[in-house]
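The authors assume throughout that readers already know how a fold can be written as discrete tokens. Each protein is reduced to its one-letter sequence and a matching series of backbone shape codes. I therefore recommend that a typical entry be quoted early in the introduction. For illustration, here is how one protein appears when written out as sequence plus structure tokens:
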Amino acid sequence: MNRKFKSTHSKQKGVTLIEMVITIVVLGIALSALISSLSSGISQSATPLWESRSLELTQAYLDEILAMKFDGTQPLGGGVVAGACSISSDGQTRANYDDVDDYDGLNDSPPQLIETSLDMSSYTDFSVLVSVTCSGTELALSDDAYAKRIVVTVNVPGGQTRSVAVYKGNF
């Protein structure tokens, strides 16, 4: 009789030790890369909040400053330029500021606006610096006396700064 012998070996089911070790190493590398990218994203998650709050505060300061006269000798809305441009704060208290020059050198920590609808209690960790310079020639005008550059710099919690510069013309 011719008998065929059945093989006692069956197909392998499962994984070998080497396959398991390779899988663990690959998953470890992938997970460490994922966790690294998530941790850096989480550390920067407050940045959009600081950006929007500093921009809101900057806009409030610029609204207040740009509503003022060009300088103490000109009428509201501008007028004829007489003489050279000068920046002179009149030593007034903040409530009596009446022209752009008065804001030069302002350093508010915490920020304080003359009139505002903002809840200023949420800005206690911020500080605001303002500088005003004669800058008509930067705008290709014939004289510096025709424009002033106003720079509002907001320091946000964590030590970062945000600056916005605008020009106010006298014409």
Remarks:
- The chain has two domains: 15-45, 46-169.
- The CA atoms of residues 69 and 75 lie 7 Å apart.
- The helical segments are 17-43, 47-66.
